[in-house]
Amino acid sequence: MKSIQFPAIAMAILFIALCNNAFPQNQGETIFKQVCAACHTIGSGKLVGPDLANVHTRHTKEWIISFVKSSQSVIKSGDKYADSLFKAFNQVPMPDNPTLTNDQIEGIIAYITEKSSSPGTSTTKADLPPGDVHRGQELFVGNIRFANHGAACNSCHNVDMSGLVSGGALGKDLTQVVSRISVTGVQGVVAGLPFPQMKQAYESKPLTDQEIADVTAFLKEANDLSVSAQAGNDIGEKMLFGGISGAVLLLFLFSLFWIKRKQRTVNYTLFKRQISST
Amino acid sequence: MDYLNNFFLIALPYLALAIFLIGTIFRYTSRKFQFSSLSSQFLEGRKLFYGSVPFHWGVIFVFFGHLIAFLFPGSVLAWNSQPLRLMILEITAFIFGISMLVGLINLVIRRYTTARLSPVTNKMDLIVYVLLIIQTVAGLWIAYNFRWGSSWFSTLLTPYLYSIFTFNPDITAVSLLPWPVKLHIAGAFVILSIFPFTRLVHMLVLPLNYLWRPYQQVTWYWNRKKVRSSSTPWSLQRPENT
Amino acid sequence: MDVRSQISMVFHLDKCIGCHTCSIACKNIWTDRKGAEYMWWNNVETKPGTGYPTKWEDQEVYRGGWKKSNGKVNLLGTGKRRGLTNIFYNPNLPVIDDYYEPFTYKYLDLIESPEGDDQPTARPVSLITGKPIDIKMGPNWDDDLSGTPDFGRNDPNLKNLSAEEQEVMFQLERMAFFYLPRICNHCLNPACVASCPSGAIYKRGEDGVVLINQEVCRAWRMCVTACPYKKSYYNWYTGKSEKCILCFPRIEAGLAPACMHSCVGRIRYLGVLLYDADRIESAVHKDDEDLIDGHLDIILDPFDEKVIQAAKMSGVADSTIHSAQYSPVYKYVKQWKLALPLHAEFRTLPMLFYVPPLLPVMATVKQVDNTEGGKMMNPIAKYWDDNWLYDTSTTELWGTLDQVRFPLKYLANLLSAGNEEMIKDKWKKLMAVRIHRRRVTVGDISQEKTDEVLREAGLTAEMADGIFYLTALAKFEDRFVIPPAHREQAIEMLDFTGDTKGEVGFGFKSKVKRGL
Predict the structure, then answer these.
(1) Which chains touch B (3 or more CB pairs under 8 A)?
(2) Is the pLDDT confidence value at B117 over 80?
(3) Domain segments of chain C: what residues?
(4) Which of B183, B240, C175, C341 is deepest in the core (most CB within 10 A)?
């Protein structure tokens, strides 16, 4: 069959292209800022993930490399420390970085080592304007669109709050996100986009500083409220119910629209009288 | 895991697209007679109504929903910017998805319980049914469990599909999506790849041309005026209908 | 004036004996294939009767043909909007049970069965599933059953007959029936062509044959619904529609179509008609009463110099014009005005014409007193040996016309879109010819009476002789005036269609394989 050749070639080209999709060698600082800084600081406290200051003294280079490449496989391999780390940080899995080479990760470690000796420089945006809770809520559900036309947060994320439409269920529930990763963590995630899905969605349509501040303020509010009142606002059942009853209605409408269709053969009465041998 | 992701999200799409393009073009050009919806309404016309109608209208709505989210992601996001409109879109899509599933189940039951349909049923029909059911169930599952797909399709899957079609595949975001989503993506490409070998090709010859053609068609084997004129050289008129 | 030629036919219904030879000839050539077993491109129906498929004329059920409303003529059950919304499920499609489930018998069982106590039987098996079936219906299931409640009384043509009229019609003594052979009408305004979403159906410009391109047909099955004559059949196996092709490969070779050639009663006439394609639209839009006149109006006089000039301008071959001048169809339809299209009210402008049967008119059976009343009867009348009189009296000139065994309305519904006068007019002509010939051969009718009859029927003695000749004596060349196909100008015609014989017999060069 002829058609096998073309896909084979296409696949080969693609795999090569994929492998070339990499960072320049040994630019630890650049890579750290692009990849790690959204969740990690060096000496400025924890964000989404732990403070990485002096991480080279806590773990071996090999352990760090394998953890960076795929944290979940390290955890699954039964590494107690990795597991406790995962639990300590609210079970937010660190995204895999399969495209980073060993050299690049070593470059990052070198950068961290260098920075650990002079701690205190935060890589996240610390100087955000004060946030407006109400505006944050509108931004979150989409009533006000982001200036750069990014998707509203509730496309993927849910926040339980009375009077609020349920958000998406693809991403994490953000009701208590502030408790989990702190305000700075949230800001870091939204600004730095460490998760590939977030990056995909907002890289070309970033949120403005004001928007980040507003959304964060709203999330903090939601977090505070949720401690007192747990509003069970599950839209799933409504959707299932609405879907099924809608489908029934649709079937009914179809039958109504084609009510005059020819339902049976014109010979029906004739056939009905006939004697069957079986 | 990476290899699986690479296979299902990069290799499979290209494989599927290649098979789809080469296969359908080959079939259309050399086996044109086989392009048919192969309707079986003539043999069984009663139960078909409850299968074909909900299935096809469901599939049309759902398909064009996906297509619009792929072609105009911005407009979908703009529509979804109000929660009420988002809900309307999601629930309507869900309704048509269920309609599609109901129709599909009715079609399967009809096909395998009606004796008269057995001579016009082949193995590929079974494969099509299985794949479509998996695909529909996965789609409904995603709509239910991973809400607001219309929004995140536009932000996550549209860039992925663009990257596929621009020959610069980027699966970093997609590969982290839950497995039903990945199943749905892979399923779509599997269906695409079996297209040329099944009755699904009838989708490609949807007779939209009918909308603007005149009702009556008269075909001449030759140009009647030229062919009767003595000034026309013998090297003649080629027949017009081939 | 856009003059085109159309191969057209006339069926002389008085001559049809209902032998079905035409159907068999057609089946053996074209439809003895899997998926086509149930198709009868040519079939012969008994009228009154429900026909094939059952009640095909009832457009309340099948929604075929065109309908005029508010001055606009639209397809009744199909068309652009309806066709595309109904594409997933055609709500008016006839199903296999409206025709019949094709079957055969396991004849081998008769010879191969093991010895036993019972006589071996050949069980009927379905040609679709291959499994034994109870035969519920078959081809011509209503043959000659015009008196039965299931067939005769369900005839859709009875729909605007009053209950009394129907009662009279089905009295045992007055019962009558005739046969109606039908093939595709190769209409000028074909509903099947208009309804085909794929554009697979087309009318050939050269000879007017309507064909389905099997490579383009996608089984949207709208043509089956749209054709009010139900002459487009869906091949359930190949997933394509098929229809009568007017044996165009035979016509191109100068042979009569199989159904015509095999006709035992010699009821069929084939010839060319010239028509004005520019006037089709206005003819279609005529009111019901003027529909047939409008239809016959667009058929042009091939002797008219202007028409000949226009025909040449439009590229009609001289040989075709010549054939048109000798066309028996032209004589029946235009010169003598004896033939009518079937169900003109469907507005497809069918190009097959029927000479209405005189049979139900010719005689009535009355109970008479032979001794007393007989003396007063015209000597032409015939006596039976009991008290029943088979009366073919012509004492009163058109007396029997008013005492027909069929309500006139029935035939009018069938052949003249409800216009009873039109049928009466044809009957008068047919009777006038008989009276004229009786004067010539038997001589017991006076010249004056004959002249009066002819004048009233609008005929001359020459015309009556012409009708008599073409009806009773015509030879093959008189009945079939087939225009040369000019195959030297058509490349396709050089393909030898015999190559495919025994494979699929339908114009393919290789054996067709059903799609997946």
Answers:
(1) A, C
(2) yes
(3) 1-87+146-355+475-497, 357-459
(4) C341
